[in-house]
Amino acid sequence: MPAVELVGITKHFGTVPANDGIDLAVERGEVHAVVGENGAGKSTLMSILYGLHRPDAGHVLRDGTRIRLRSPADAIAHGLGMIHQRFRLFPGLTVAENVVIGAEPARLGVLDRAEARRTVAGLAARYGLEVDPESRVGELPVGVRQRVEILKALHRRAEVLILDEPTAVLTPGEADRLIGVLRELAATGVSVVLVTHKLSEVLAASDRVTVLRKGRVTGRFVTAATSADELVTAMIGRSLTEAAPPPGKVTAEPYLLEVRDLRVRDRDGVPRLAGVSFGVRPGEIVGIAGVAGSGQRELVDAVTGLGRADAGQVLLDGRPVGGGRDRRVAYVPEDRAGRATAPGMSLADNLLMGAQRGFLLSMRLVRERAAGLVERFGVRAASVRAPIARLSGGNAQKAVLARELSRDAPVLVVEEPTQGVDVGAQEHIHALLAAARDAGRAVLLQSSELTELRALADRVLVMLAGRVVAELPAAEATDERLGAAMTGAAA
Ligand SMILES: Nc1ncnc2c1ncn2[C@@H]1O[C@H](COP(=O)(O)OP(=O)(O)O)[C@@H](O)[C@H]1O
Ligand SMILES: [Mg+2]
Q1: Is 32 within 8 Å of 161 (Cβ atoms)?
Q2: Which of 72, 134, 181, 311 is 20 to 30 A from 282, comparing alpha carbons?
């Protein structure tokens, strides 16, 4: 008998079916991965399981018995625990205090510290979770705080642990350790529901997988007997055809975008760009690599006209870029929520932002044009009237690309185009960037994903301490060579 079973769960938000008749059974002692693209309905399903949302239809069985989940308190009472992405811990208290607080009536209102310490040390040992019960939570790295959340759930006798995209906040090393912890927990009989859109995690951590797509189950697999390909097909409804779009043609045309000896100092007079020069031809993608803070941001600001340079030039077709946003440069920033979109405004308004050019477009025209862009760029949204903040990360990114590419600016500057975006949307975004290149635009692509730079860029420039320290053709831009240049290990 499954430890927990969701039966025929349906949940609508407005007219959008976030969950549409989902069945999911989680066995005792297994790690059960729930995967799907952004917007597939994973979080909604988990919120229903944890009593945060009520389903329109369907029910939940716990050890074969139907239970009512009207609130998280009901879920906890039935042995369900949720590890939130934003931890609900008190930074000023110790690990032990955080774990026991709220779960047990303190004797005369006072927490028995020694008792708490013993309890937490015992739990930690039993489940193989390394933490020091005495440490102050505020001083711990994120990965360890997450372990404290897990201990807290176990202390409340959770037998089913729900983790919604738990590795999104972790470094790669911490993510590996978490997966180890989840395997340990399952070995002791705990059932783990692991929500993720990263296939490598699914394959490393889970026993079985349920795939969701557009609110429905599109696949159920035993992890050991499936493959990344099979999972991707269930997730996005087709397989990923070629790994990368075909490369562009090398041209000998003059630079469309040219940067000459650019120098920028910050407020304290520290050099952030110490003489950067390079050019991008039409029909070419030039990649920018480097560890964070090597001058990429200052370079992008100078090229887009958002920031000023202390010396040097940025030329478009031989003419200097103007201050403020230069209309000849399209820009897809990393910080989508902050720089690229007005979150409270509708998708339609966001898509046509800046396109009004002096006359007001009628509401109807805005909506028609927005609908055209949504169609052309494959943005998945319930309505162009809904706030853009409702869109999943991948769809918001496609919307920003749609807006910037439809402006017909000759130069395109893109930062971290696929950060936080699932595989299906990644492929689509890469194809859009390759198409912009093929249309003769000069593309400057800043990315921390070396595979992305290799797949798209013709050449990769490596920045370190405000300078370009290496330039490699894509074919020579191996992890080793890029890594060496990024850290200054290359001569
Ligand atoms: N509170 C909400 N209000 C309106 N729509 C929502 C809400 N939560 C989720 N949705 C919509 O339901 C769908 C599924 O979302 P979600 O469950 O968050 O997917 P996932 O976790 O797989 O990315 C999406 O279309 C999303 O926009
Ligand atoms: Mg989610």
Answers
A1: no
A2: 311
Categorize the per-residue pLDDT at 277 as very low, low, confident or very high, splitting at 50, 70 and 90: very high
25-28: list long-range contacts, CB under 8 Å, 24+ apart: 26/2, 26/160, 26/191, 26/193, 27/2, 27/3, 27/191, 27/207, 27/208, 28/2, 28/3, 28/159, 28/189, 28/191
The superfamily in CATH containing domain 243-328+409-491 is P-loop containing nucleotide triphosphate hydrolases (3.40.50.300)
Q: Does residue 314 surpass a pLDDT of 90?
A: yes
Closest residue to atom 1 of ligand 1, CA basis: 13
Torsion of CA 274, 279, 280, 281, to 10 degrees: 180
Taking the CA of residue 382 as reference, the ligand 1 atom at the shortest distance is 25
Domain ranges for the chain: 4-236, 243-328+409-491, 344-400
Give which of 455, 449, 491, 457 is closest to 473, Cα–Cα. Answer: 457
pTM for the structure as a whole: 0.62
How confident is the model over 344-401, as pLDDT tens digits?
788 888 888 766 544 566 777 778 888 888 888 888 888 888 888 888 777 888 888 8
Q: Which of 54-58, 296-300, 405-409, 479-483 has the lowest mean pLDDT?
A: 479-483
Average pLDDT of span 99-114 = 70
Tell me how far apart the alpha carbons of residues 286 and 280 are, in angstroms, rounded to a whole number.
Answer: 6
CA distance linking residue 167 with residue 178, whole number of Å: 8
* Rounded Cα gap, residues 49 and 45, in angstroms: 6
- Name the residue among 177, 112, 111, 117 with its Cα closest to residue 147: 177
Instruction: Please tell me the CATH superfamily of domain 4-236, with its number.
Output: P-loop containing nucleotide triphosphate hydrolases (3.40.50.300)
Q: Do domains 4-236 and 243-328+409-491 have the same CATH topology?
A: yes
Q: Tell me which residue of 376, 377, 368, 369 sits closest to 396, measured CA to CA.
A: 377
Residues 6+ apart with CB under 8 A from 112: 106
In whole angstroms, give the CA distance from residue 466 to residue 12.
Answer: 50
- The number of the ligand 1 atom at minimal distance from the alpha carbon of 43 is 21
Which SS3 state, helix, strand or coil, does residue 231 take? helix
Which residue among 20, 85, 390 has the greatest number of ligand 1 atoms within 8 angstroms of its CB, and so is best to mutate?
390
Tens digits of residue pLDDT in 237-265: 766 554 556 666 666 678 999 999 999 99
